[in-house]
Every structure is written in structure tokens, then in C-alpha cells.
Design goal:
By secondary structure, this protein is mainly beta. The strands form eight sheets. It has a seven-stranded antiparallel sheet with strand order 8-9-10-11-12-13-14, with no helix packed on it. A five-stranded antiparallel sheet has the order 1-2-29-28-27. Strands 3, 4, 5, 6 and 7 form a five-stranded antiparallel sheet that branches. A hairpin with a 5-residue loop joins strand 32 and strand 33. The longest helix has 15 residues.
């Protein structure tokens, strides 16, 4: 009898649930397979390996968003076929769980075949997604938005809303939350129109709307109680912006006096983004490449402009091919992530790592760039940062894509090559600013060493020292012969991370020995090319 009562209660609960409710995907679903990577790659999570998805086609999208107040993280990408499906992934600040939802746009916004394109995530009090959709042409496009009316991680998505309204020719649609809780959307048209739409939190009411400018979009952010939209003239390279605090009254067009760097005789301006500090001050990020360089990877440098009439600051190495920069801010922290080829000798867009640099004083001074994906044995591409940094712990969030067939980067395989139909996977990760400084101040309670294995290009080595003293870290082969000395000398107690290039080692098993004054520890390493 008790079992019968419990079964009836369960049936009643299911019957009472809203018809559009979705369930948390624990990884067992065949719709959106999800699994965390092994512990040695802690911080990366494979959020979509469906083989039927892509995202981040342009820098104007913001596929990943983080709300430091709520602690909510949201990533959105779209299905390859059919194109009317968006995949939305939500997590908390520690990746302790993931919620995966399908959101279907086909036949919900007229015309009936209006497939979603170029989606962006909006991490507001509630999570939102925004996208342009195709019209019957197909051509761009409607400005469409949708929100999770149950709040973070609930999966109760309301129906999508046409906020255009109608076909305004939009090919981008990015949203953010204003201080009063309304949502401000910026849409970009094919003739460089920049629209704004201020909507009520439930998207039922258009509070204000209009055309801001007709120029090339640079970037959009809301922080410090201010919303700023930046754009520029492609002919004169004059930079302009407009601000608002309520999404209704705007400042009018103002000129931003940027001091352009001249690193090459024929410089080309490419990817642009911007972010506001917590004080509401803009920081502009952009790439300049050498237009006289006829072969890829082209010489390129990533810059930031932290104030008008001041020289721009190079945040990437000036003798490399850095490009595709993206920026995040929070507290006094500024983070810039960009791509660097790791093998310039190959005819390849396929050999990229994701690098980052950071500032702890709102962009005035910068640190040494670090490689985020050195331990990842696949080519990465299309990386982006979430716009907000968690100022409490210095953690920032990012994503990147990989092509699941061979070593093809999505930037080449999808955008330029014949590999566009290959399946793609999307990873979301986190990292700390100043991770080395933070780690070296800690004193671990035991001697340990961990090594990524197997490895084909780089092996990430992490070891902890309980006491200061002389150490040696060496690699031996299976015969006991010394292959390489990695480190020797005096070290303070703390946690250390380094990357071992194994590209010149033959396939096989090797052994790493860490010797200290108090004890020794070893670990095996398998190399497979």
C-alpha cells in the first residue's frame, strides 16, 4: 500500500509539472553527452561533443557569460542541422554540476523556418539567450531573445520573443542586464546599423528602442552602473561611443581619442572587443596584423587601450602571430585571452593554443603571458572569455572549440576548409589570475607529483614541495638512461606547474623522478604521437 501511495504521488508530481520542463542532464543523455575531463585537466569541461554543433563564428558573439553575484555560468551554441536548435549549458562557479537544455527556435518566431544564428549568453538575474534568426530567404534577420523564467538552473525556458520587432536585417544580437533589471539588447544590421532594444525582465514590454548609429560595431558592455556601446568608422578609424544608465536616455555620440600603435608599415585592424571596469571605465581590446605578410600565421599583436589619448599597451608578445583577442574585467582585474600558433612551420590554421595575460591594476601594468592549453593535445580555436572576472578569487572563465577529426582547428575547418562537416566539441574552462604567485605562497602538507599522460605534444607537470631545499626533476627511459634534466636547484615550499615538450621524444613509456632533501617521488609518462 505504501508503495502504491508513493507511486501515485510521483505520478501526480510529474503530471503537475509544466509541459515545457526539462531535466538536468547528468551526462547519461544521448542528446548532449557531457563528461568532465580527467583530473589532470581540472578546469576544462567538455560541454558539447554531440558532433552536431558549432558556435562563436564571430567576435561579436558572446557565447559564454558569468554572473559573479549569482555565481551562474552560461554557455550557448547552436546545432548544425537543423539550425533552429540552440544548446544551452549552465553551471555554477565551481563546475560542481551542469544543466544542458535544447531550446528550439524553428516555427516559434515567424517565418516558420527562422533558424537561430550567432547566439549569445546573457548572465543576468535570470539567464537569457539572444540571437538573430533567418527569415524565409534565408537571410538575416529577426532579433530574438528568451529567458529562463524559473531562474538559474531551472530549465523552465519561456517562449522566444521577437524584440525587433520584425525583420530588421540583424545578424548579431547581444544582451546585458541594466542596473534597474531591464535587459538591453544591441543588434547589428548588414549595413552596419546598430540598434538598441530595452526590454522588461520578462521580455513582454519594449521599454525603449531605436537606431544608435550606422558604423562598424566595436563592443558592448554594462558595468559600474553604465552601459556603453563602442563603434568605429572603417575608413577614418575614428572611434565613437554612446552611454546610458537606463537604456532609455543616451548620451549622444562621443569621440574616443585612441592613439593607434604603428607596429607594421601596413597595419590591419581586425578583431575588436571592449569591457567596462567596475568603475564604468572602458578598456578597448583589438588586434593589429601585418597586411604585408602574405603567409599564415601573419605577424599580429593584441593591444588594449585603457584611456583616451594614452599609448596602447601590447598584451601579447610583439614577435609572434597573436590574434582573436577577447577581454574580461572584474574588481581591479583585467584579463585578455588570444590565440597563438604553436607550429608556424605547417600550412595550418590548425595549430593554435589559447594564451592569456592579466593586469591587477585595471590595465596599467601586465604580467607574463601564459598558455592555457599547453597540456591539451588537440588544436584549439574560437576561444572567448566570459566578460566578467570573479574578483573575489581572481577566477576567469573561457571556452574554446576543437575539431573532433584530426588536428583541424574550427577556425580553419569550419570557416575556410573542406572540413566544415566534421563534428566539433566545445570546452568551457576556468583559470586564476596570478596562479603562480598564489600557488607558490601556499605550503602543501605532502610531497606529490602529477603528470598528464598520455601526451603527444606537451605534458603538464604539477608538483608540491613541503619544505624549501635543493631539488632535481629528471626524465629516464625504460632502460634507466637519463633522457632529460627538467629542473635543478633551490626551491621554496609551494606548488609548481610547468610544461614539458615531448614532441621530440619517441613513443614509449618514460619515468619522471623528483628528488628533494627529504624524500623522493616518481611518476610515469606515456608518449604517443
Amino acid at each position: 500500500m505504501k508503495k502504491l501511495v508513493a507511486l501515485c504521488l510521483l505520478i501526480g508530481l510529474i503530471w503537475a509539472m509544466p509541459k515545457d520542463a526539462k531535466f538536468i542532464d547528468d551526462g547519461s543523455s544521448s542528446n548532449l553527452p557531457h563528461r568532465p575531463l580527467p583530473s589532470f585537466l581540472q578546469g576544462f569541461v567538455l560541454v558539447d561533443s554531440s558532433g552536431n554543433s558549432y558556435s562563436a563564428w564571430t567576435k561579436m558573439q558572446e557565447c559564454l557569460a558569468f554572473n559573479p553575484v549569482v555565481g551562474g555560468l552560461e554557455f550557448v551554441n547552436r546545432g548544425y542541422s537543423p539550425t533552429g536548435i540552440l544548446n544551452v549549458h549552465q553551471s555554477d562557479a565551481s563546475f560542481s554540476f551542469w544543466v544542458h537544455d535544447y531550446v528550439v527556435y524553428d516555427q516559434q518566431i515567424p517565418p516558420a523556418n527562422g533558424g537561430a544564428r550567432y547566439p549569445s549568453a546573457v548572465a543576468a538575474t535570470n539567464p537569457y539567450i539572444s540571437t538573430p534568426t533567418l527569415d524565409a530567404g534565408p537571410a538575416f534577420g529577426y532579433m530574438v531573445a528568451q529567458y529562463d523564467e524559473g531562474g538559474w538552473w531551472s530549465s523552465f525556458w519561456a517562449d522566444p520573443v521577437d524584440i525587433g520587432p520584425g525583420n530588421v536585417g540583424a545578424h548579431k544580437n547581444i544582451g546585458k542586464e541594466l542596473p534597474d533589471g531591464n535587459i538591453l539588447f544591441i543588434g547589428c544590421g548588414l549595413a552596419n546599423e546598430i540598434y538598441y532594444r530595452t526590454m522588461s525582465p520578462d521580455l513582454s514590454t519594449t521599454v525603449a528602442s531605436g537606431l544608435l548609429a550606422t558604423n562598424e560595431y566595436w563592443g558592448f558592455d554594462i558595468n559600474g552602473g553604465i552601459a556603453s556601446v563602442f563603434y568605429y568608422n572603417t575608413g577614418t578609424l575614428d572611434v565613437y561611443y554612446q552611454t546610458t544608465t537606463d537604456g532609455v536616455t543616451w548620451s549622444g555620440e562621443q569621440t574616443y581619442d585612441i592613439v593607434w600603435p604603428t607596429p607594421y608599415t601596413n597595419s590591419g585592424l581586425y578583431w575588436t572587443q571592449m569591457a567596462l571596469t567596475d568603475a564604468g571605465n572602458p578598456i578597448l581590446e583589438f588586434d593589429i596584423v601585418d597586411n604585408d605578410d602574405a603567409t599564415y600565421p601573419w605577424d599580429g599583436i593584441v593591444y588594449v587601450s585603457i584611456a583616451e589619448s594614452q599609448s596602447c599597451i601590447a598584451v601579447s608578445p610583439t614577435d609572434t602571430a597573436a590574434f582573436w583577442g577577447t577581454i574580461a574585467t572584474g574588481g581591479d582585474l583585467v584579463v585578455v585571452m588570444y590565440q597563438l600558433p604553436y607550429n608556424a612551420l605547417e600550412d595550418s590554421f590548425a595549430c593554435h593554443d589559447q594564451w592569456f595575460n592579466w593586469s591587477g591594476d585595471n590595465g596599467a601594468t601586465w604580467h607574463t603571458p601564459q598558455n592555457l592549453t599547453a597540456s591539451f593535445n588537440h588544436a584549439t580555436g574560437f576561444g572567448q572569455l566570459a566578460k566578467r572576472v570573479n574578483a573575489t578569487d581572481g577566477k576567469f572563465y573561457y571556452f574554446f572549440g576543437v575539431n573532433m577529426v584530426g588536428e583541424w582547428d574550427p577556425f580553419y575547418g569550419v570557416g575556410y576548409g573542406t572540413h566544415g562537416a566534421d563534428p566539433h566539441a566545445w570546452y568551457v574552462g576556468w583559470e586564476y589570475t596570478g596562479i603562480e604567485e598564489h600557488e607558490e605562497t601556499e605550503k602543501p602538507n605532502r610531497l606529490t607529483m602529477n603528470v598528464t599522460t598520455p601526451a603527444s605534444r606537451n605534458a603538464r607537470i604539477s608538483y608540491t614541495l613541503t619544505n624549501a631545499g635543493e631539488i632535481s626533476l629528471k626524465v629516464y627511459d625504460r632502460t634507466g638512461s637519463l633522457v632529460r634534466t627538467i629542473e635543478t636547484g633551490y626551491k621554496d615550499a609551494g606548488v609548481y606547474n610547468l610544461n614539458l615538450n615531448v614532441s621530440e621524444l619517441a613513443n614509449g613509456t618514460y619515468f619522471l623522478f623528483l628528488k628533494t632533501e627529504e624524500a623522493n617521488v616518481h611518476s610515469s609518462l606515456i608518449v604517443i604521437h
